[in-house]
Structure formats: C-alpha cells, structure tokens
Design goal:
By secondary structure, this protein is an alpha+beta fold. The protein has two domains: about 15-170 and about 230-315, Bira Bifunctional Protein, Domain 2 (BirA Bifunctional Protein, domain 2, 2-Layer Sandwich); about 330-420, Rossmann fold. Helices cover about 40% and strands about 20% of the residues. It has an eight-stranded mixed beta sheet with strand order 1-5-6-11-10-9-7-8. Strands 13-12-14-15-16 form a five-stranded mixed beta sheet, sandwiched between helices. Helix 1 runs antiparallel to helix 5 (about 135-155) and helix 5 runs parallel beside helix 10. The longest helix has 20 residues, at about 15-35. It is elongated, with a radius of gyration of 28 Å.
C-alpha cells in the first residue's frame, strides 16, 4: 500500500517553494523595518502552557490540539499557535527586565486537528509578531498598520479591517453576567458544547462555528456597551491612530477572537472574494497572558497571518504574480573529455554566488541544450577543444541567442551583467 502524507498535511514541492520564500521574505523585511527581531521557539511545548495561555474552554484546547505523553509520561503538545510559546520564552529567559518594548516576529508551522478545507490544514504555517512591555494604544495601531503593510507589499490591497475592543477583566465581569442572563432562556437551543460554555465562558459561544448557536442568541448584548472608561478611551486612541494614517476599518461587535487571552483591542483582516475562509489574519492585545503563564503583570499585543490563506488570496485575486526564478547558468562540455573542466568552472561560478548547473545524465549536446532551456537557463557556457586550448569560453545568451567569447577572468562580471538585464 502506498504511504501518503497524513490528512490535513501536504508537501511544498520545489515548483511552489519559491512562492513561499517570496512571501516569507516580504513579511520578515517589513517586520524588521518596524524594528522587530526574529525569535524561534520549539515545535512542541508542555501542554499546560496552552491550557493556561490559550484557555481550556476554547475549541483549540478542548478539541484541536495534538497532545501526547513522552517516555517520562510528561504531557506535550505540538504548538497550535505562536503567542503562548513567545510568552513562555520571555518568562523563561527573564527578558522583561530590559529595554522596552520587546518586539519579536516568528514564522513556522502550527498544528491543529481541524477539518481540512481550502486554506485550512492540520499542519499550517503562520507569520506573527509580538510586542511586550507597553500598553500604549498607538502601539496597537502600529501593530495593525504593520500587518496591513505586509498585505500591501504582497499586492493584497482589497481588504477589510475589522476592529473591536473586548475590554479588560473588570469590563468582562459585568458583560459576562449580561450574556449569561441573555442566553439562559435559549440554552437548550445551543449546541452541546455551548450549553456548557455559556456558564463557564459565555464569550466562547459568540465564537462558536455552529450557525444554530448564532441564530439562537441573535440580538445578544454587545461588549462595547459594557466598556469601562479606561477601555473606552484606549479603544478611541487606537482608532485615532489608524485614522491619522488613513486606515479605514469596520467596528465589529461580533469580533471577540477565539482565544481567551485577548483584552482590549481585537482585530481581523478579511479579503472578500476568496470564499468562506476570508480571514487571512488577526490578533489583539493580551495584557494578562504573561501573568497567567507565571510571569509578571506585563502587557503584550500581536497578530498572526496564515501563509496558506495569503497564497490562496494571491492566487484567487491575481494581484501579484508569483513566478519562481530558478534561472541559472548551464555549463555544457562539448565532449566527455572536457567534463572535469566543466566541473571546475561550475564550482567557480557557484563560489561567486551564481546559480549554475551541468548535465549528469550523459545527454548529447543537443539534448543538453533542450534540458538547459527547460530548467530556465539564461546563459549557456560551451566548453570545447578550442576554448580549452585558447583559454576562453563561448557564452550564449538564451534570450537574444547572441554568442560571444569571454576571457576566463571576465566570466563572472559578464554573466552578472547579462543576468541583471533580465
């Protein structure tokens, strides 16, 4: 029986990996322009980290995590998201005593046992940023603008920014009671999960994926009516920061995000026109998370973008042509006797930073030229008896079909000049 990749996972083959490298390069360069630096955390953590950080009543923790015991019977979990791991790293290395704010970005695979569909997989990839140490609402605005700048640089300019405030723990105490009182008469119309959630954590009912639950609680009280003065002022300043930068947004009372650690600002970005999975990223403030995970009372804010969703959007909207550029120089010995010379030149070009290739399949000269064309060679170097005896190379420009003689000491400069004209 043929062994295939597990359901919900897939291979990124060489023909597609260039697209991923392009997106990752844009995201990293943009984050670094905003003074963020890269952090890399383990692919698995102690399960307790996500139970405490993400929240035991969330779908992620209750249904979607890949959890296992190691040989010492310790419960470990493949990371379902990146923020909790960054918080754990911050606390473990005691980085909260230095210069503030701490600004990190990360990029890598995450794991959730979810129903696979377009843009949603069980192993998926996220790019995210986290900023620790400041509660300044203009930092919230900066984080949002950074996320939108990435989309813009990827050619995704037709987006909708949804914005809300989920308040602070004090706000939510009052709001929680309002929600419970409102949902009580309709509890039997809720799904089995939400019949438990509405008492333990009623905000999770608002985030339920079951449409029957949304129908049952239509007209529920919104959190914006329960914000305290400080939270209302914080939200107003975030909006002012966005408006000062000509960023349009939609206030969305339904937006509460799917993780328990959020406080104050919450946001999502949607790209209409790519189907049901229109949300390509989102985030928010999580001022209580560091303390919840065993650290000091330390504010934080961040976002994550789904790479699969971004690729889906770019393919669907055709706003940015992602063409793999694997063009190279092909070194072609005219006879087998010259293969050692070809191999020496091949190594010389590679040391000079030029992508170069040669034939290893014993093809004829004619077949080698066809192969060079198929792999996207922009330049072919011919090595024959005359070239060896007189110390030059014959170079063919594969676009113009022009051929010229090149002295060995001018080879690298000549090739670079040709490649940079494409």
């Amino acid at each position: 029986m043929q062994i295939k990749a597990p359901r919900g996972t897939y291979d990124i083959l060489p023909d597609d990996s260039g697209k991923w490298q392009f997106i990752e390069k844009i995201m990293k360069e943009t984050a670094e322009a905003y003074a963020f630096r890269e952090v890399r955390t383990p692919l698995f953590e102690h399960t307790e980290l996500f139970e405490r950080g993400v929240g035991e009543t969330t779908d992620i923790v209750s249904k979607e995590m890949y959890t296992f015991n190691d040989r010492a019977a310790r419960s470990l979990t493949l990371r379902p998201e990146g923020t909790a791991s960054c918080v754990r790293s911050l606390i473990e290395h005691r980085l909260y005593g230095g210069l503030m704010p701490i600004k990190w970005y990360y990029c890598g695979p995450m794991f959730r046992y979810d129903r696979p569909q377009a843009g949603r997989y069980r192993q998926f990839h996220q790019f995210g940023v986290e900023a620790f140490g400041s509660n300044n609402p203009y930092l919230d605005a900066e984080i949002i603008i950074l996320m939108l700048e990435i989309l813009s640089r990827l050619g995704l300019n037709e987006y909708e920014l949804h914005l809300n405030s989920v308040g602070c723990p004090e706000c939510r105490k009052e709001y929680r009671q309002k929600l419970i009182a409102f949902m009580e008469p309709f509890k039997k119309q809720l799904c089995k999960d939400c019949q438990l959630r509405y008492i333990l954590n009623p905000l999770r009912v608002l985030d339920c994926k079951n449409e029957l639950c949304h129908t049952a609680i239509a007209g529920y009280p919104v959190i914006s009516d329960s914000l305290c003065d400080n939270c209302r002022e914080h939200y107003a300043q975030v909006k002012a920061g966005l408006e000062a930068n000509s960023i349009s947004f939609i206030h969305d009372d339904k937006l509460v995000r799917g993780l328990d650690y959020y406080s104050n600002t919450a946001f999502e970005v949607h790209i209409p026109g790519i189907g049901a999975q229109s949300a390509v990223g989102g985030g928010g403030r999580y001022n209580g998370l560091v303390k919840e995970c065993g650290g000091p009372d330390f504010p934080g804010i961040g976002f994550a973008l789904g790479l699969e969703r971004l690729l889906l959007a770019m393919d669907a909207l055709n706003d940015k042509q992602l063409e793999n550029d694997y063009s190279c120089v092909f070194v072609l010995p005219m006879k087998k006797d010259f293969e050692a010379d070809a191999f020496k030149i091949l190594s010389h070009l590679r040391r000079a930073g030029i992508r170069a290739e040669k034939d290893y399949m014993g093809r004829s000269t004619k077949a080698q030229l066809k192969y060079a064309d198929k792999i996207g060679a922009r330049v072919v170097l011919f090595i024959g008896e005359e070239e060896i005896q007189q110390g030059f190379l014959t170079l063919r420009n594969m676009e113009s079909k022009e051929q010229l003689r090149v002295e060995n000491n001018e080879l690298v400069n000549t090739i670079n000049n040709i490649l940079h004209k494409f």
